[in-house]
Specification:
Blueprint (H helix, E strand, L loop, with lengths): L1 H8 L1 E3 L14 E3 L2 E3 L3 E3 L5 H4 L3 H12 L2 E4 L7 H7 L4 E6 L5 H13 L4 E5 L9 H4 L7 H6 L8 H6 L7 H7 L7 H10 L4 E6 L2 H10 L3 E4 L13 H11 L6 E5 L5 H9 L4 E4 L1 H33 L12 E3 L8
Helix pairs in contact: 3-4, 3-14, 11-12, 13-14
The structure holds flavin mononucleotide (FMN).
Length: about 325
């Protein structure tokens, strides 16, 4: 993730002077849903470790600030609990294409019924990366807790039978359900069974973006999974322009996450073609610090910095943010 953060610093801003920036307007829409600002919440597993109310507190913060939260398939609460906690929140549901298609279908159908507005398929995890931090025990899930409260509602008979009689933890179950043989045909299959918009998360190249569009997705989230999957991949802000260019004119929206920490990062991502950014770790930090209020505070800080960046670059609306206002510093290096 350090790579993604550092990559932002290599882009420089080219501000415009003497524009009227007294009123700045940055509300927008994402997949047709109005949001107050182009800063949304990436899915993160294990929010219950950060705060007892976990995903419910995050959903309430998203609801009160009117932005989108992607709920992880490894949330601490069922999707019903989360949507009941924040009935007006715009919730999207993140999952994988699971080995057991019945489970995949079950989860999508129930997310739809619970009022989730989109399904986000993480495509960068045919297997789980080598997470040394987790192996060292930094973030080990207490098995009992995962078994008790997780989103694969263990009380549901369909899911219960799928969880192999409760002999394994849900994390193990979920990772065992990842399919190394999965292809874009899985997305086409999903397109056929749900009316929800489909977002693919984890695309990093133009070629994959084109394949995603051909498979029928509605949006692409450029992501390196917070550096937790493949080591040494492109920084997401570097990958973004290629993805945007590859699918230009398709009508498919492009978002990004990874290393977004400041308002200037949001500005750079939007200038390079993202419709919105998503935050992963900063949300967990806010949650750990002060629950729902902490998440709100983090979003407000980044929002206010973004507003300040707009003022200082001479932008009063999102359409004023142009690719020409961001330049990679390599363009200023000597060619000798
Ligand atoms: C603790 C943690 C848990 C995560 N869990 C998930 C997950 O369940 N599903 C997923 O698609 N991505 C997951 N991610 C990746 C995030 O969605 C996101 O891509 C990444 O954190 C963005 O980078 P940032 O943390 O620099 O903002 C997780 C990341 C972290 C740090």
């Amino acid at each position: 993730m350090e790579d993604c953060k550092k990559a932002f610093k290599r882009y420089r801003l080219r501000p415009r002077m003497l524009r009227d920036v007294a009123n700045r307007q940055f509300s927008t829409s994402v997949l047709g849903h109005p949001v107050s600002f182009p800063i949304c919440i990436s899915p993160t597993a294990g929010q219950g470790f950060a705060d007892i109310e976990g995903d419910k507190a995050t959903a309430k913060a998203a609801e009160s600030l009117n932005t989108i939260m992607i709920v992880s398939n490894c949330a601490f609460f069922t999707y019903k609990d989360i949507s009941l906690a924040a009935p007006n929140a715009m919730l999207w549901f993140q999952m994988h294409l699971y080995k057991d298609r019945a489970v995949t279908r079950f989860l999508v159908t129930h997310a739809e019924r619970a009022g989730f507005k989109a399904v986000v398929i993480t495509v960068d995890a045919p297997v789980i990366g080598n997470r040394r931090g987790m192996k060292r025990g930094v973030m080990m899930a207490p098995r009992e807790k995962y078994r008790m409260v997780n989103y694969y509602d263990p009380n549901n008979p369909e899911i219960r039978s799928a969880i192999a009689n409760g002999d394994i933890s849900l994390w193990e179950y979920a990772t065992d359900q990842l399919v190394t043989t999965e292809t874009w045909d899985g997305i086409k299959w999903l397109r056929g069974i749900t009316k929800l918009p489909i977002v693919v998360k984890g695309v990093l190249t133009g070629n994959s973006a084109i394949e995603a569009v051909q498979a029928g997705v509605d949006a692409i989230l450029v992501s390196a999974h917070g550096g937790r999957q493949l080591d040494g991949v492109l920084a997401t802000i570097d990958a973004l322009p290629e993805v945007v260019k590859a699918i230009k004119g398709s009508g498919v929206e492009v978002y990004m996450d990874g290393g977004v920490r400041m308002g200037t990062d949001v500005f750079k991502a939007l200038a390079l073609g993202a419709r919105t950014v998503f935050l992963g770790r900063p949300i967990l930090w806010g949650l750990a610090n002060d629950g729902e209020n902490g998440v709100k505070k983090v979003l407000e800080i980044v929002r206010d910095e973004f507003s300040l960046t707009m003022a200082l670059t001479g932008c009063s609306k999102l359409d004023d943010i142009k690719a020409s206002m961001v330049v990679h510093e390599s363009q200023y290096l000597s060619k000798l």
